[in-house]
Write a structure and sequence with these properties.
heterotrimer, A mainly alpha, B alpha/beta, C mainly alpha, B: alpha/beta, Rossmann fold, five-stranded parallel beta sheet, C: mainly alpha, globular, binds iron/sulfur cluster
């Protein structure tokens, strides 16, 4: 009656210009005017090129002020682009094709060299396989006519995430890396790598020609390899190599897809593939690449290994950029196979992966480990939403991507702050952080809430995943399993997130207050304000707006009260059975036992194999 | 306010503390809570938490080990509170009187309102003592109650909400005081 | 009518709690406290001096109470059941945060157990919501109620719901989260005076919330039956450990719910 007036998702579209508008204005009125008046093409080229220019520029002239200004421009550019609704494309031409082929060859050669240098024959073998396939493709496949770059709806969201959140992470990284025990050139290089990574991502989300896509896909692999191995330690090197060969598998899958597409007479353009040129096998191979990039369950090892890198790298890889390629790819290809048996199989894999990842996180003893597993779980949810492929669930996948990027980036950066100020990585060492930095920890609590609870954006995604799955449940019994795993995963994620808090607050002897430098606190503030503001704007057009607004107002008032008000009641000591003993806390961990976990690992392997077999059968029968 | 106070006295929650008793008294307490005597029909609940209790029901002669805990628990009960000493031990030391490890009775440490005699006191006596304790509780709650004025309520609320206002008023009143 | 139930929810909850204490006493051959006992308790708590650990801790209890009230409002005022469940989750998390925010062992153990309780019951409630959606085609509680009762189509979910009722109302064998005399009430341990009163009233709201689900499932008869059954089971069983509780929910409650849902879908 009262609450049912406003239906869910009525005006979802309306929020986009608003978010863009308010954000942009909040950065600088001048910047908006600039961005609105320049043409879209200029803006896109600005986004694609400026990270590279900035990277080179920072290597040559490491001026922090200039960099901050440029980053602000970059973020504003991403936002301004988000506002436009027209489509844009760049047609292919001969020179670019040869340039791409040349760069591809160069990159594969580099992989061989890297593998040879560290005597990792897996990397070499994979690179060799890739080279053979690459040569085959270049010999066989004609260029045809099509768009080289294509601005899609998902691309606009991705550009917003990459540039908005990525810029803040880079701004944080500049300060963070100062305290690293490496020489000045290395520090500059670190920032430059991050910037270049953003450049690669900006181009990747626009790519439509598959060999360009492959090139950029492999470039992100390369960038992650370099960044993970940045700390020149034994473990870092091993993990970087693992990330390299696992992601190379994804590259092989993409090249395989191109070859199969050639054999079946399809072109080399992704929009053509989605429109029905390509068989299910091609799509499945692309999805294998997506599953690997998204660290879905049999492939989770590389993402956890990436935690040895400096924290801004984790933030960059896991929130703003690299892993988001996976849901982006699913968004691209979902229309081609969402309602087939293959799509059902993939839904099942993603659901299970989400549940198992959130369960595995319960045993992690480091903050970054917990965040890593929760990233895997939420990535699976994003891919799942994208794969359901209703207009609403597609939008929700993108909304989740945005909120996850902001919330996770905030948490990772806070992990970085803790690492720098208290030299703590393990959760046990983080006791009583709240008294040391109350505002930062309030931000952490807010970020945790924004990833699970109403009325924040990530909750809407969880909610609409349940609704969308329930909408497809009739007559499809396996959907019950997908739904159940999403539901269980969401409960487990609540446990995972909020058991973290147990140590943050608890202390008997208040620790010294730590004041953060502006370089740390400003990016944090921007991210927190961004998450809150996006929630507010999103709420205004969501379902049950009254309730949601009430909740948000309540939360905000509560947090402010908690932070500001000192209630005038008398203080008491805590109850300890009359004893006055000092207590040290430790984190709770939960497990079903090693055997069950091992059998789950096998299950995921088996599901992956089944996915491939299904794809082959369906692809051949076409 | 009148019927409110009548309501309030119907809910005595007890904190039971064993300060080294022989467990005879404790068994009697359990008996009183059981079906035969059913202490709960008076609204009595055994909370086990000082912060939410009204009646501090102590048994045993206060051994050396239990002294600190006794006082700590007593201070953690918010006013108004009533202390009931149950059994001969708790009053005087009883059969343990004069032993090397025992303080004879709890009133050397905390003020006692009701003594229930007996070794062990019967449940009837316990109920009697509870009734007495309730009377004292009502008296105490009346004593700590301040008269409320109509507009004073606003200031009072402000005081409750803001410690700074409180501190200021305190400082002002101190200034007024003759040195 | 429903608006009044929502606005006066703590009042009705108080009556339910009073009735329950009476019934339990009679099951043990005792007379039990008067029906209005919860209100007597509240009047008493208002007379007590309030002490707090720190203001955040106290305010979070208020947040828990208000959010819970909103959740009750959503489920009773024809709102979306999924919404109600998630707002209830938000309320629980606020309480957990409060529990973690003080350096008290019991509070921490209680908050950890509260989280485990969430992990146990939430999937079942959500699956129940999905089952309602499948059979009535709507997420709104009004439409679900119009679809009649669900005794015959969701018997297994009813059993699972009974387990949830036991857990949410703090009944044996699933009362690990609030175990008195073991962890002294868990998260409630550090509250006193009017802030404990807030938590006490929140308990009334929890009753209304979960029994609203029972009502949607099987009407007034089900509410009465579950009420009696829950108290019978409470009197007849001993408390399970947290690990055992989670195991029961995942080995019995969840499979039952899933089986029922499969039956509805296939
Ligand atoms: S009074 Fe008697 S029954 Fe009670 S504790 Fe002392 S010795 Fe035991």
């Amino acid at each position: 009656m009262l609450l049912a007036n406003l239906r869910w998702g009525k005006n979802v579209e309306k929020m986009r210009p608003i978010i863009a508008g308010v954000f942009t204005k909040s950065i600088s009125i001048f910047v908006i005017k600039e961005c609105y008046t320049v043409s879209m093409q200029t803006l896109l080229f600005f986004l694609i090129l400026s990270p590279w220019i900035m990277a080179v520029g920072y290597l040559v002239v490491p001026n922090r002020g200039v960099l901050y200004g440029a980053l602000a421009l970059l973020g504003a550019g991403g936002l301004a682009l988000f506002d436009t609704t027209t489509s844009w494309q760049l047609s292919i031409n001969e020179t670019i094709v040869y340039l791409i082929a040349f760069l591809d060859a160069l990159l594969l050669g580099y992989f061989v060299w890297v593998g040879y240098r560290v005597r990792h024959w897996g990397v070499v073998a994979l690179a060799a396989v890739q080279i053979v396939m690459f040569v085959l493709i270049e010999v066989l496949l004609g260029h045809g006519e099509g768009a080289l770059l294509l601005l899609r709806e998902a691309s606009q969201w991705m550009l917003l995430i990459i540039n908005g959140v990525g810029a803040l992470i880079v701004a944080f990284a500049v300060v963070y890396i100062e305290a690293e025990a490496v020489d000045a050139v290395q520090k500059r290089r670190f920032v430059a790598y991050l910037l270049a990574f953003m450049g690669v991502m900006n181009l990747l989300v626009l790519a439509n020609e598959v060999m360009l896509f492959f090139l950029l896909f492999e470039l992100t692999t390369l960038a992650s390899f370099v960044l993970i191995g940045f700390r020149d330690e034994e473990e870092a090197r091993a993990n970087a190599l693992r990330a390299l060969w696992m992601n190379q598998l994804g590259g092989v899958a993409i090249l395989g897809a191109v070859l199969v597409a050639y054999a079946q007479g399809a072109s080399r353009y992704i929009d053509g593939w989605v429109a029905g040129e390509a068989s299910l096998l091609v799509v499945a191979l692309m999805m294998v690449a997506a599953l690997i990039k998204g660290a879905t369950m049999p492939f989770d090892r590389w993402l956890l290994g990436a935690m040895v890198a400096p924290t801004p790298v984790s933030a960059m890889l896991h929130s703003a950029t690299m892993v988001k390629i996976a849901p982006f790819m699913v968004l691209l290809f979902a229309p081609a196979f969402s309602h087939t048996a293959l799509g059902g199989m993939m839904l099942l894999m993603l659901g299970f992966s989400m549940a198992f990842a959130s369960y595995r996180g319960l045993q992690e003893a480091t903050l970054k480990g917990v965040l890593g597993y929760s990233t895997i779980a939420l990535l699976a949810l994003m891919m799942l939403l994208a794969l359901i492929d209703t207009p609403q669930s597609r939008t929700m996948a993108l909304v989740l991507m945005l909120f996850h990027a902001m919330g996770k980036a905030l948490l990772f950066l806070i992990a970085g702050v803790i690492e720098r100020t208290l030299h703590a990585k393990r959760l046990d060492a983080m006791q009583g952080l709240f008294s040391a930095m109350p505002w930062v920890m309030l931000g952490a609590v807010g970020a945790l809430m924004s990833l699970t609870l109403p009325p924040f954006g990530a909750f809407w995604a969880k909610y609409s995943a349940i609704v969308a799955l329930a909408g497809r449940i009739d007559g499809a019994a396996y959907m019950v399993l997908v739904l159940a795993s999403v539901i269980i995963a969401s409960a487990l994620l609540v446990l995972l997130y909020f058991k973290l808090l147990s140590l943050f607050f608890a202390t008997q002897n208040p620790t010294q207050r730590i004041t953060l430098s502006w370089g740390y606190s400003v990016p944090l503030m921007f991210l927190a304000a961004g998450a809150l503001m996006a929630s507010v704007l999103y709420l205004a057009w969501g379902a049950y707006a009254y309730v949601a607004w009430g909740l948000l107002a309540l939360l905000v008032v509560l947090l402010l009260l908690v932070a500001w008000l000192r209630l005038g009641f008398d203080r008491a000591t805590v109850y300890g059975c009359g004893e006055r003993t000092s207590v040290t806390w430790s984190q709770n961990f939960y497990s079903f036992g090693v055997d069950i976990e091992r059998s789950f690992t096998w299950l995921f392997g088996a599901m992956f194999v089944a996915f491939l077999v299904m794809a082959t059968l369906l692809g051949v029968s076409l | 306010m009148k019927w409110f106070r009548q309501w309030a006295q119907k809910s005595p929650w007890i904190l039971h503390y064993n300060a080294g008793s022989c467990n005879g008294c404790d068994i009697e307490i359990l008996a009183a809570l059981g079906p035969d005597y059913d202490l709960e029909r008076f609204g009595v609940l055994n909370r086990g938490n000082p912060k939410q209790s009204d009646i501090f029901l102590v048994t045993g002669p206060v051994t050396y080990r239990s002294r600190e805990r006794l006082v700590e628990l007593y201070t953690q009960i918010p006013e108004p509170k009533v202390v009931v000493a149950m059994g001969a031990c708790t009053a005087t030391g009883g059969v343990f009187r004069g032993m090397y490890n025992v303080e004879d009775g709890i009133d050397t440490y905390i003020p006692v309102d009701v003594y229930i005699p007996g070794c062990a006191p019967s449940p009837q006596l316990l109920i009697d003592g509870m009734a007495k304790a309730l009377e004292i509780w009502v008296q105490k709650s009346r004593d700590i109650e301040k008269p409320h004025r109509l507009f004073g309520g606003i200031r009072k609320t402000l005081h409750y909400l803001d410690r700074r206002t409180m501190a200021q008023t305190l400082a002002q009143s101190k200034e007024k005081e003759p040195q | 009518m429903m608006v009044w139930i929502v606005l006066l929810a703590p009042l009705w909850g108080g009556f339910i709690l009073g009735a329950e204490r009476k019934i339990r006493a009679h099951m043990q051959h005792r007379m039990g406290p008067p029906l209005l006992q919860p209100f007597y308790d509240m009047a008493k708590l208002m007379q007590k001096r309030t002490t707090i650990i720190h203001s955040g801790h106290a305010l979070l209890a208020l947040g828990y109470f208000v959010t819970l009230w909103i959740a009750v409002g959503v489920v009773l005022l024809d709102g979306n059941v999924l919404w109600a469940i998630f707002i209830h989750l938000l309320a629980s998390v606020l309480l957990v945060t409060a529990g973690f925010s003080v350096p008290s062992i019991f509070s921490h153990v209680g908050a950890n157990r509260e989280l485990l309780a969430i992990v146990s019951y939430e999937p079942i409630l959500l699956l129940l919501g999905v089952a309602w959606y499948v059979s009535s085609g709507s997420w709104e509680s009004g439409a679900i109620a119009l679809g009649g009762t669900y005794w015959t189509s969701m018997p297994l979910l009813g059993v699972a719901l009974l387990m949830v009722v036991l857990l949410k109302t703090g009944k044996s064998p699933f009362d690990m989260a609030h175990a008195h005399q073991e962890i002294v009430g868990g998260v409630e341990v550090e509250y006193s005076g009017i802030f404990y009163e807030v938590l006490y009233m929140a308990r009334f709201l929890e009753y209304i919330f979960i029994y609203a689900f029972v009502f949607l499932w099987g009407g007034v008869v089900a509410v009465a039956l579950f009420f009696v059954l829950a108290n019978l089971i409470d009197n007849a069983t001993a408390r399970l450990t947290p690990a055992q509780t989670v195991r029961w929910f995942y080995a019995l409650g969840l499979p039952l719910a899933l089986l029922n849902l499969l039956g509805l879908v296939a």
